[in-house]
Amino acid sequence: MTYIAKPVARHPRMKVNALGLTPRDYEGTMSTLCAGCGHDSVTSALIQAFYELDIEPHRVAKLSGIGCSSKTPAYFIREAHGFNSVHGRMPSIAAGANAANQDLLYVGISGDGDSLSIGLGQLCHAIRRNVNMLYVLENNGVYGLTKGQFSASADVGTRSKGGEINRHGPIDPVNLALSLGATFVARSFSGDKRQLVPILKAGMRHKGFAFVDVISPCVTFNDHKGSTKSYAHTRAHMHEVVETDFVPLRREITAEYGEGATRSVTMHDGSAVRFNKVDADYDPTDRGAVLEHLRQVRNRGEVATGLLYLEETGEDMHAFENTVEGPLVDLPYDVLCPGSAALAELQKEWW
Amino acid sequence: MQPTDTRDPQYYHKVVDCQWACPAHTNVPEYIRLIAQGRYSDAYMLNRASNVFPGILGRTCDRPCEPACRRTRVDGKPVAICRLKRVAADLREDITDRLPKAPPVKNGKRVALIGGGPASLTVANDLLPQGYEVVLFEKHDKLGGLMLTNIPAFRLPAKVLNEEIAYVVDMGLDVRLNTPVESMKGLLDDGFDAVFVGVGAPRGKNLELPGRYDSDRVHIGIDWLESVAFQHIDTIGERVLVIGVGNTAMDCCRTAKRLGGTDVKVMARRGRADFKASDWELEDAEGEQVEVMEYHSPKAFVVEDGQLRGMTFDVVEWYEDDKGKQRSRAVEEVFIPADDVIVAIGQENAFPWIERDMGIEFNDWDMPVVDRGTMQCSLPGVFFGGDAAWGPENIIWAVEHGHQAAISIHNHCHGIPLAERPDYGMNLVSQKMGIHEWSYSNDYDPNARTAMRYVDLRDRLAGIGVEAELGYDVDEAAREVERCLNCDIQTDFTANLCIECDACIDVCPLHCLTITENGTEVELRQRLTAPAENLKQDIYVSEELPQTRRVMVKDEDLCVHCGLCAERCPTAAWDMRKFDLLVPYAGHDTWATTAAL
Known about the structure:
The complex is a heterodimer. Chain A has helices at residues 38-52, 68-71, 90-100, 112-116, 120-129, 173-179, 193-205, 231-237, 287-299, 317-321, 333-336, 340-347; strands at residues 60-64, 81-84, 105-111, 133-139, 142-143, 149-150, 184-189, 209-215, 238-240, 243-247, 263-266, 272-276, 303-310. Chain A is α/β, with parallel strands linked by helices. Chain A has one domain (23-321): Rossmann fold. An 8-stranded mixed beta sheet of chain A has the order 2-1-3-4-8-7-13-9, sandwiched between helices. A 3-stranded antiparallel beta sheet of chain A has the order 10-12-11. In chain A, a hairpin with a 5-residue loop joins strand 5 (142-143) and strand 6. Among the domains of chain B are: 99-202 and 349-413, FAD/NAD(P)-binding domain, CATH 3.50.50; 204-346, FAD/NAD(P)-binding domain (3-Layer(bba) Sandwich), CATH 3.50.50. In chain B, the strands form 7 sheets. Chain B has a 5-stranded parallel beta sheet, covered by helices on one side. Chain B has a 5-stranded parallel beta sheet with strand order 6-13-7-8-9. A 4-stranded mixed beta sheet of chain B has the order 19-23-16-24. In chain B, helix 13 (221-229) packs across helix 14. The two termini of chain B are 27 Å apart. The mean pLDDT of chain B is 95. Chains A and B meet through helix 1 and helix 8 of A and helix 7 and helix 20 of B.
């Protein structure tokens, strides 16, 4: 753990975004994770994404459960709202918060233990409801906080630091999300911000549940030879199925795609996601084809990365439930709570 | 780019901006650290090893280190390096038993030093402990040279000056006071093995204008200061004009304020941005109610009935001619009354006592031709240093000239070619104490520069001997030392340990680090986490990294040496290592370079 505060000294020529903020204004407290933890790089990528999207710090709600990953909301945007829930229960807190105030940007940070073991049911239902949020699963294949037991995402044949070989089949979070009907599914790597940052930005702008599985190595318990979630293994085996470029609304979207660009999807707010260098015949908007393609990549022993599936026309939780527009806090009190007479009138339906 | 060779001592030396900028390469961060630990005597001795006169320089140095200080680039104001040097001198205990000593058995070589200023005294300081017999010839009845005659006592008390001169003299220097050298030939005939000329630049430039010689109230700055120093002059008129705006002019105007001048004006031809005086000396003068008048070009002395009435000036404006050269044109003429005028527009060298037919070559400006590296002139065995070598510089340059001349003299006396100079070396030692603990104060302190306190203005101007600055007390020093960014604690990188987790890049508060594909320097500087736009600062490039064959690049410009890169590095690829530059002096062997974990 680091004892000193990060120096307040700043680069004198650091650029500011449209809000006049620098990347350092999106920082949180000093990380207490192990040195070299992939999660700190994910935090750094999130900071860059918030900064580049000119997001107002007080319009963000950070949510998490329990685990190393779930500590990380403390390390970005100190001015944001935050809620650290019971283990695995972050999705319901996020759904509830979103039901009450749909105008905030919800960013849930979870891990493979929090999401794929104790909270698996919660994650599944948040996907089904299509809660409008960015959900980042920091995936390292081990329970780091409890000294490195295999987690539910550990691959068959992977070796623990103590020498054990894992024999249980993994839960592939990307496969899970796709099969449950998620509208935004991506996988990336903490050691590749060039890929990760545009995906996070697109996820923040996506209307619906944006699911990002980030391979985020545990340096302390899962970065050795024989691990399939180490820095070296991920670098050697990651296969970028599709390269993603996020084009914000402010930048003029021209018809010219770069070489290899095949497709552009316009987001709900008018920004766009552009797909470049797609694997031959890969269509990131065809769920069935994506599932099949990913199966082939997996069978080759590779880790497919990129913004793998995107559907921008899906309905989110508020659309399903036909809720009122805007946050509840903005409703006049007599509309929010119409009184006992109105309640009695409503109850007549079930008499 | 080729991987940076950090085992060349000069790479990390350059990262220590203050030490790099100091002509004598004083180990500033380490002495500041010693002050922080309350080890004032150790800090003094470390200073003395390179700059010989810490007490004197702590008050009078030109401070090339301070504009170079990294802290200036980070928060606008440099660490008060010079003031801290004075703290080490003021708060030290008796260190006389720690001073170098001359051996009882001499080496049989005799060296003559001409002039008793900082350059000659440094040569003596370096050669006496090596067993040389050193004879110093001084024309005045006191040692010190310019430090005595040109720097007023309110900036440099006699006690401080005399004490540090005595440290050198007491090693066994044979001092001949009141002994001006009249003939270089004669001196060489006395059988010296080597001669060092450190006579300064003793002739003040004159201002040849109408009326110059019609009054005895027109003075040459350095001569006038010298007369004040020797107490031949102790008064001046109420209205004083000082012509020129260099550091000598600042000493003149402040001295005039103490000798009875009430209306003292410094007259400058140019605007403030082009003044030669150090900012702090200008501030001090203006703090003593000296008026500085820009754009006044002297025209004539006005003398009526043998009485100086004042001077006429052209008020000028500056413009660029077609060749881009700055030129002035007169806008109007003004008369400014004065009782005394002091001309402080520069100094010149004069060597009437060196015979021109003895093999010492002089150039078109009547200056001796001196080799920049060896300090030797065209006559083997004769060396120059300080202001005598290339005209007015400053004390710290004189000291460095003295060190280099001493090495040359040592080589000359032992039949070693002068070009064979002992090498610099370095030690590089990890500062890791525990898992997240370092043996230096790595926490960044956002304090602003500690202001200097002065003696109350009325008391200050009451006498020439009242030292104006009070110096930092223990608490102020303790506060200022924490502003030092520890540039000598180097971020040392071992490429084959790196797993490219990005932790260092993510945590670096100044965005100094990047992992990227290698390229040419020009192009690489542009695609870093933050563009490396300060071309005076190097960028470090590592060997290829094991996993992706990319390279680690560090822009040295703004690194605050907080150690967070090393602290967040899981494999200790980054380590914080203390760099100690090993500087060679006369009689020392070449230094080795050692790097240990």
